[in-house]
Amino acid sequence: MYLYQHKIDTGKSQQMIKVTGMVQEDIQKSGIKEGIAVVFSPHTTAGFTINENADPDVVSDMLYSLEKTFPAQDQQYRHAEGNSHAHIKTTVCGPSQVLIIHEGAIVFGIWQDLYFCDFDGPRHRSFYVKIIKG
Length: 134
Fold this sequence. Notes:
Blueprint: E1 2-9, E2 15-18, H1 20-30, E3 34-40, E4 46-52, H2 56-69, H3 84-93, E5 96-102, E6 105-106, E7 112-118, E8 124-133
Antiparallel strand pairs: 1-8, 2-7, 3-5, 3-8, 4-7, 5-6
InterPro entries: UPF0047_YjbQ-like, YjbQ-like_sf
Organism: Hominibacterium faecale
Pfam family, one: YjbQ
């Protein structure tokens, strides 16, 4: 088993950053050809999703829809820090993803990539990748 940590700086209040390449590099470093990779965000306002990589408007539409559904400004939120919307969006996306490794590569559909989602930026973030031989 291998554990890798990544540092990532987000530049916007809410964004999705493609991190597939970072995880694929970890898989190559590990030398594991068959197994799983678990990616995990230790933040309560940032997580992961797997989604389309071909059209950048998909990311924009996702962020728009999440903001429309869980707006940053809502007088009914009680959390004193004022970032309840980010906690809710992270719960919807999830703090982790499990990826299948086959022949040394992540198994994705043709249009899929892994995105780190920050809903309370800009911040200095980190995430972990645990690679397990299968």
